[in-house]
Each structure stands twice: as C-alpha cells, then as structure tokens.
Amino acid sequence: MKTEIITQSEAVKEVERKFKLRSLPENLGTFPKKIIRQGYVSITDDGTETRVRQKDDKYFKTIKSGAGISRSENEVEIPPEDFERLWPETEGRRIEKTRYEITLTGGYLAELDIYGGSLEGLMVVEVEFTDENQAAEFVPPEWFGEDVTDNSAYKNASLAVNGNPEKVAGQPTFELEEGVDFLKKEIETRKNEQVGPLVVLIAGGSASGKTSAVASKIHEAFADESIILSLDDYYRGKKFMQDMAARGIDYNYDQPEVIDLDLFNRHLNSLKTGQAVEKPVYNFSIGEADKTETIEPKKIIIVEGLFALNEKLLEVGDVKVFVEVGTHGRLVRRILRDIESRGQEPNGILEYFARVVEPMHQEYIESTKKSADVVITNEYNPEIEARGMKEVQLKFKGVIDQEKLRKLGAERIGSSVQVDTYYNPKDRNLNETGEVLRVREENGHNIVSYKGPKQDGDFRVRPKIDFEIDRSTRDTFIGMYGGETVVIKKDRTLYQLEGVTFSVDKVVKVEDGIEKDLGDFVEIRGVNSSDEGLLVRITERLGFKMEDGDKRAYSEM
Q1: Is the pLDDT of residue 528 over 80?
Q2: In the chain, what are the domains?
Q3: Which residues belong to the active site?
C-alpha cells in the first residue's frame, strides 16, 4: 500500500453532533463494533490535529481543523508500518475505545464510543449529518443525554491530553490499604468535631469490595461506636416488581428505583437527630422484607450499597466514598462469589452481568463517583483471589507414532477442531497480570475459560474455571469485553492412558491478522497438583523428557 499525501484541497466538511448518554441502548451487543486506538502526533494552538488511528486491522492518518458542529477533515488509509512508525510520537496523547454503529430512526448512523484505559466509564455518541440544517433539525432518541458538541473538553484530542472531563479535579484516590487508613483518620477527626452521628456513605459497583474490604474494616476500627446499614434491606421486593411489570414497567435489581431511597433517607435523618428507627430486614430467599429491626443511633453510621452516593442521600452524608474496580475485576469476583456462595450457574452469572449489571453500572453507579470525597481503588488481584480447579499441563513439541500409542494401550477419545480467542479487557492487560480470558468454539459450543497466574513447578499449574455459554451471551460478553488479542486454531485428538488425558495437536496462531504455523504438539494434563507423579510417568512412557517440556500456552508462543 502506498502512503498518500494529505493536502488541504482534499478537505471534506465533517458535520456532526456529540452527546453524553442518558442510558445504553437495548441489545448493545447485537450492533456492529470496532476496537479503536488512536494517538495524536501533533495538536496546534489553532486546534489543528494530526492523528493516527487503528480501527480493527486497518490504519489511518487524519488531519482535522476547526471547531464546533462543522469541522474540516482529511483522512487516508496508511500501511501498518507507517502507523507503527508514527505511534511512538503519540506518547501521552492516546485513547482507546470500542465503537458501536447503531442505525437510528430516519436512517441516521449513531457511533457510540465506550472508552477504556484511563477514560474508563466515559461514554459518548456522535451522529454525522450532510449539512448543518439537518444537524439542527435532528431529534435525539431517549437514550441520548446532554449535547456536548460545543464542549471542547469532549473532543477526542482533549480527552487524549487532559483525560476524562467528568473526573473531579483534586479528588483524592488511594489504593485499598492506604485508602482505609485515610478514612479511619478522617472519621476519627470528624467524629470528635461534629455534634451528633457522622454518616459515612460507601458506594461502588457489584463485587467492588465496598462491604467486605471497606465498610467492615471501618466498622472494626470503631467497634461499638459504629453501625453498618445496608441499602439492600430497603429493596422494595418481589411484589413491587410484579406490580410494576403489570403496569408495563420492567425494573431490574440493579436500578435505584427498586430501593426505597426516600424511606432510607428519612431513617438516616432520624438517626442523625438521635431517634431510633425500625429498619426493614430483607429476606433474599423470599424476595421481601419480612421483619424489622430496631436501630439505635451510633456515633458513626456506615452506609454501604450500590446507590449510597445517589443524589437523594448526598445531603445527609458527611464522608462520601466510592470504591472503584474495573469491569474485569468485578466480573471475575462476581463469578467466583456467586458460584461459591449462591450456587448459581456461571452462564447465568455472566449473562446477567453482561445484560444487566454492567449497563446499569455505567448508567447509575459510575456517574456517582464524581460526588465522592475520596476514591478507593480495590482492583482484583489474581495472585491472591484467583481460585478454582487447578489446571496442570505440560507441552512437548513433536508427534507420536500411532503404532506406539496402540502398543501403549492409549485409548482414543475423539477429535475436534477448536478455535480459541483470547481477550483483554479495556481496563487492564492480562499478559501483565498473568491471567487468561478465553472463549473456545468447539462443535457448536462456546466455552469461557478464566485462568489465574501460573504457579512455580515442573508443570504449568494455574487456577482455572471453565463454563459453557450460549451464543447470545457470547456476543453480549464480547461486546462488553472487546480487546481480542490472539486466536489459536487447533486440530486436536484426545487420548487417555492410565486415566491421564493427553492431546495430539496441530496448532496455528493468528495475531494481528497474520497466521503462524506453530506445528505439532503433545499436551499432557491433569486437574490437581497431586497428579504430577502420575503425569511424569506418562510423560516418560510416551517417550518425552521432562526437561524438554514447554509450560507456555499456545497463545504465548
């Protein structure tokens, strides 16, 4: 491909409007999407921008000038090597996002951008028009929010340089341990200065650790001086949901409307004035509050819940905390938690998270972070938190003669074609954390695998969870996660010998659109570290030497 030279005479007029989001559109995962990363080579004082962009497997160089609803734009496709040459010049001026293309009523094309990396949580939507009259007459759909076309802080170049305009300047942010210590000192100081109870509001997403990692630690520190109130006890309940559904309003349990925030607010105000309250106690097994509990005022009242920083509660809160965790961390924690403590099926957990929890988080919870006095990051730590069945594996380059397998008494189980797609979330690099998130397609089935970091030993040992998902959940998950990194294609034949499973694989790796034949391998596997003695014996019977073993995954080769 020949690099094109952009001239001013080639400029085209770009007429578009940009909006924040009031909510995500329904069935987001069904719309076409592209993974975009772009960086700015230069941004001049008059607003002229020179950028390079990777959109899936295509590369572009663009010059933009002007401001507001109409701008001049030149864009040409460039070879990958030109992009890679210019990319280092964009250091410190980059953004990454997933772009969904949504056709609106009237034939307009809306481009919905969900940002990742340092801009995690920011979402905007753009609509392009043929002229300014058409732009002025455009009626945004219900899910569009504030028009920010003329707000320069929402230009991509500004986002790349200045970050998220919705992030509160000067808002202190701490890692977990440091943040809890900061809160303890702040509460100790404030409680002695304040007349009456001190209300601490602790919000955050599902499985962020707002209860176990933050609220409980504060409660332990102040013991009898404090009490924890959970917003969960104020769920309106199953009957309310059924009554609303009968009226054509379908709520889910991750919306603020299903919690009686008005009652909770009245109870908090009563406690602050020294009055006891009769708090409902929600019974999750029946989906209703089935009794009450008398709560006496305490010097410190700790409130925890998804919506603890809802605008209805802000005035009564004295110390406001947001516990922040990226999408990947909340998803993995939720899967581990709900499998172990609630006995739920992983497919159902993932389906509900992708369809309900994450969209509701973006719409109702992430936006409340700006009201916090302090943000505590409690990112998922796979070295500590990853658990599940152990995967024990070792690979050997080469093939095994079929006659040898017959003489050894190896039983052929079956053959299949596997296509493994590895993903990186928008908010972290799993290669750096030692994790793996993979979706495998095999015989019409889709299997999700999450693997924790490797452990030291002669074999590759790591925690692993596998579960099957349906096609719809797979599409929704990919839409939420994005970040495809590597594809591994295998022709695999499985055998068993002395109860040990091993496979004979022909492997092809696809990365950045380029196929690489990795060759033939034999992979020996177990499900527990205690199997290693037997695995060593089988390795030797198959004619391999342990020192020749390869502990890498195919995706790492």
Answers
A1: no
A2: 8-162 (2.40.320.10), 173-380 (3.40.50.300), 386-556 (2.40.320.10)
A3: 40
